[in-house]
Amino acid sequence: MKIKRMYFNKLYKELREPEISILLGARQVGKTTLLEQLHAKVTKAGLKSKYFNLESSEGLMELSGDNAAVIKTLMGAGDVVFIDEFHYLKNASKIFKEIYDSKKKVKIYASGSSSLEIHKHLKESLAGRFRTTMIFPLTREEMRQSKMEVLDVFLKWGGMPGLLHRASDDDKMDLLSNIVSTYITKDVKAMIREENVRAFNQMLYLLAQNQGSLVVMANIANATGISQTTIADYLEIMSQTYVCHPVHSYSTNLANELKKSKKCYLFDVGIRNSLLKDFGEPAERGDRGVLHETFVYLSMLPQLKPNMEIRFWRTKKGDEVDFVLIKNRVPVPVEVKSSVKEASIPSGMRSFFRAYPKAPFGIVFSGIPEKTADHEGKPVYFMGWDRAENIEYLNDV
Fold first, then answer.
1. Does the pLDDT at position 375 exceed 60?
2. Is residue 201 a contact partner of residue 178, using CB atoms and an 8 Å limit?
3. Which end of the chain is less packed: N or C, by CB atoms within 10 Å?
């Protein structure tokens, strides 16, 4: 089944723009499919184009040789060039720069799964010459084109596009397990010492198990037998390969706030379930609160604009809110609840309003009917978990 991704129209419009269009994201989130769909539409429109897959030996051979030879190949390939996993291309930034600056304009679309490598390529020489699009797993809105959009189904399997071609539960579990294995064998082994791969695997499991909680380096170091410095390096690798999203604490230097703490969320709820080896029904799981919290976070993340960010809030006394959704530096406290039965404003949100009186309103995502409560003149909106998929209600902030 072909799913039209929400990124497609934006990327196709970039055909008219001279900058190199770069698609970023974790492995198997659909970057290759997007490039192939773009390639097909460009070809249908009558433009000459060429597709290079650099994870294949054939693709690497086609773009082998010195810079001049590669540039000649790319510039002679057509009006539009597609390069999948371009971070395998040596001297990519110099090659892209020369093509961009040449009189013969060639539009380049390129994808990559590792920003550790990509950042080596996209240095100052490409400043102003590229634009990026972050590709995430399928949203429930995109999955409505299939039959997997039911929330509990999504919380169980997640949004990896390959699931759409797997009919049985066993096939789905195999796919998710293979994605994790491929990440370890291809991305991780290339970046860390062989003897530490087992410790990395253990850290992955601990992060999945404790998702939504504060990341305590000392605890992970004790459990894995590696240093806190190495743990920090591994977390950076996970972030730079788009597998783990760090969420930092929100603070304006109040004395009682935790200022340097952070939480981490794996990029897909199905991948987390695979790491935990738990595909039980969400309503029956002891961690269903984490599942809903993760769903809300991963739903909001792709919608962020450059003037927005997501943080969390916690004080040394234990007051906390799950997320602080910030737009134009204005904070909105967000709580996620799995078992509430009435529109009762959480105590952590009340504390946040006292600490940050400029917060205009609060949001509680839960399973109760939608309702608006009042806290000292500030509205608190109780919404279904799926309302996190559209945060346009921040337009007035």
1. yes
2. no
3. N
